[in-house]
């Protein structure tokens, strides 16, 4: 009986931690929260190798304020690795604002 209760608590804790990790991986933060360049340098190639695509679109911004859309966090890591860039996940509104501004100038 005691083993069953312990198992339930451990199992429930693992489920909650798993859900929290999923939510945290998609928390959008302000670009101002980043200080460029970040130290230590993030190994985006290693992160890309370990990442599993979930295809939740995200907005990324580099140290120059250039924004672009990515298919998901893994796509951002792969792009940073391949192109030697430092894009960071920012609020989706940043990319929407840039797109709206570009449309107004056309």
State the CATH architecture. 2-Layer Sandwich
Number of helices: 4
N to C succession of SSEs: HHEEHEH
State the name of the first-level CATH class. Answer: Alpha Beta
What percent of the residues sit in helical stretches (DSSP H or I)?
40-55%
Major β-sheet strand ordering:
2-1-3
Q: Averaging pLDDT over every residue, what do you get?
A: 78
Tally the beta strands.
3
**Terminus-to-terminus distance:** 70 Å
**Number of self-contained structural domains:** 1
What integer value in Å does the Rg equal? 18 Å
Keywords: Signal
Signal peptide: 1-25
InterPro entries: Kazal_dom (IPR002350), Kazal_dom_sf (IPR036058)
Domain Kazal-like: 39-97
Entry summary:
By secondary structure, the protein is mainly α. It is built from 4 helices and 3 strands.
Name a few traits of the molecule.
106 residues; mainly alpha; Wheat Germ Agglutinin (Isolectin 2), domain 1; three-stranded antiparallel sheet; 4 helices; Kazal-like domain-containing protein
């Amino acid at each position: 009986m005691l083993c069953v209760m312990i198992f339930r608590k451990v199992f429930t804790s693992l489920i909650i931690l798993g859900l929290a990790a999923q939510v945290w991986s998609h928390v959008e933060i302000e670009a101002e929260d980043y200080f460029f360049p970040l130290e230590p340098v993030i190994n985006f190639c290693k992160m890309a190798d370990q990442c599993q695509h979930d295809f939740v679109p995200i907005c990324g911004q580099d140290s120059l304020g250039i924004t672009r859309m990515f298919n998901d966090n893994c796509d951002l890591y792969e792009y940073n690795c391949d192109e030697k860039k430092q894009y960071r996940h920012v609020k989706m509104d940043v990319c929407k604002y840039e797109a709206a501004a570009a449309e107004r100038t056309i």
